[in-house]
Write a structure and sequence with these properties.
Oligomer: single chain
Number of helices: 1
Structural class: alpha+beta
Number of strands: 6
Order of helices and strands: EEEEHEE
Strand content: 35-45%
Shape: globular
Distance between the termini: 33 Å
């Protein structure tokens, strides 16, 4: 599905690295309240976790900035508390995911 993905922006992570956020047209096509998805995957045999993120195509700059802030916060909480807290869903393959949703104003 790489034909749907382009790099939207980078989010600086607590360790000084950067997380590349891909913009995709196929993010939760049946649920327009989802603006993005953050995933976490353990690196086998290391005890380390890698993160990946996608954002719905067509969001404005403010929404992208909010999503970037949300990513940083979720990564920090995952590192501190693990995935059982903060709305993360553990998938059958051992990875985790959490959805960012539009705020109701």
């Amino acid at each position: 599905m790489t034909e749907f993905a382009t790099m939207a922006f980078l989010v600086e992570m607590p360790d000084g690295g950067f997380l590349e956020v891909e913009e995709r047209v196929d993010v939760a096509p049946d649920d327009l309240s989802v603006i993005g998805i953050l995933g976490a995957s353990p690196l086998e045999g290391t005890g380390l976790i890698t993160f990946g993120a996608v954002i719905r195509a067509g969001l404005d700059e403010d929404q992208q900035d909010d999503f970037a802030d949300w990513i940083f916060d979720r990564v920090m909480l995952f590192a501190e508390l693990g995935g059982e807290v903060d709305g993360w869903e553990r998938l059958d393959d051992g990875t985790w995911r959490v959805e960012a949703r539009r705020r109701e104003d």
